[in-house]
Amino acid sequence: MPIATPERTVIVRQRRFDDVKVPKADLWYSIDWSEWLNGDDIASSNWIVPSDLTKTNENIDSGTKASVKISGGKVGETYTVINRIVTVTGQETDERSFKIQIVELKEG
Questions:
Q1: Which residue segments constitute the domains of the chain, with CATH numbers given?
Q2: Which residues of 31-48 are buried (b: 16+ CB within 10 A; e: fewer)?
């Protein structure tokens, strides 16, 4: 599992995804909903982020990708981040989640 760096955007395409990051990193995570949407678009996106993490920004890209920028966390902890969307037609609501493990950056 690669360590997320501040310059990297992680795109979640599958239902289950795990990543690691250091507490100081402020990283973008994106969930690509395009296959599931089947031609529809995202009308709203709600990110549920545990209290030890900070949601510093969020957006919807091209109507098919929900993104959130996350910082913080305590070393040794693993957090679950959830994204819930509603489609433009209002017919569909779904959620995806991923886990972020917080690690200490090893110099060396």
A1: 3-102 (2.60.40.2020)
A2: bbbeeebeebebeebebe
pLDDT value of residue 40? 93
Helices (H), 1-108: 34-37
E-strand ranges in 1-108 read 3-4, 9-12, 18-21, 27-32, 42-48, 53-61, 65-72, 78-87, 93-102
Of 64, 71, 66, 30, give the one whose Cα is nearest residue 49: 71
Specify the pTM: 0.82
- Cβ contacts of residue 87 below 8 Å, gap of 6+? 37, 40, 41, 42, 43, 93
What pLDDT, on the 0 to 100 scale, is given for residue 76?
94
Joined tokens for residue 86:
């509603």
CA dist., res. 28 & res. 66, Å (int): 10
Taking Cα atoms as reference points, which of 102, 98, 5 lies closest to residue 52?
Answer: 102
3 state DSSP class of 36: helix
